[in-house]
C-alpha cells in the first residue's frame, strides 16, 4: 500500500520554510491561543531557556493576534532541544514549532513598531 512515506516527505519538499533547516536559536510557534501571554509562552517552554525579552506575538493590521509567536533561545542547541515540544498543548491548542531565523524574526519585530 501507499502508507509508509507520508511523514518523511513533508520535511524534504518545498514550502516557505524549506530553506530554514539549520537551527539558529530562533523558533516560530503556530497555533497559539489568541489569548496567550508571555507567561503562557514561558510555561509552554518550561525547562527550556527562552529569552523572555525575545517573545514576539504576530498581530494582524487591526491588532488582533494571529496565533503565531516568535522566540529566541540562547543557542542553536537549545532551540533544537526545544523542538521536542512540537505539537504540545498550550491551553487547549496544539502548537506547532518551526525553525526560524534572525531575518524572519526581525521582520516581525520591526513590523509592529
Automatic annotation (TrEMBL):
The keyword RNA-binding applies. SUPFAM superfamilies: RNA-binding domain, RBD (SSF54928). Keywords: Repeat, RNA-binding. Gene3D superfamilies: 3.30.70.330. It comes from the Eukaryota. One of its GO terms (molecular function) is RNA binding. This is RRM domain-containing protein. It comes from Heterosigma akashiwo (Chromophytic alga).
Amino acid at each position: 500500500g501507499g502508507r509508509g512515506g507520508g511523514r518523511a516527505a513533508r520535511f524534504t519538499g518545498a514550502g516557505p520554510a524549506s530553506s530554514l533547516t539549520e537551527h539558529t536559536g530562533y523558533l516560530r510557534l503556530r497555533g497559539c491561543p489568541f489569548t496567550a501571554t508571555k507567561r503562557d509562552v514561558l510555561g509552554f517552554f518550561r525547562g527550556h531557556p527562552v529569552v523572555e525579552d525575545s517573545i514576539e506575538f504576530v498581530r494582524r493590521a487591526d491588532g488582533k493576534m494571529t496565533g503565531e509567536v516568535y522566540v529566541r533561545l540562547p543557542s542553536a542547541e537549545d532551540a533544537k532541544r526545544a523542538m521536542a515540544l512540537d505539537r504540545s498543548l498550550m491551553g487547549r491548542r496544539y502548537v506547532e514549532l518551526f525553525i526560524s531565523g534572525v531575518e524572519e524574526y526581525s521582520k516581525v519585530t520591526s513590523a509592529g513598531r
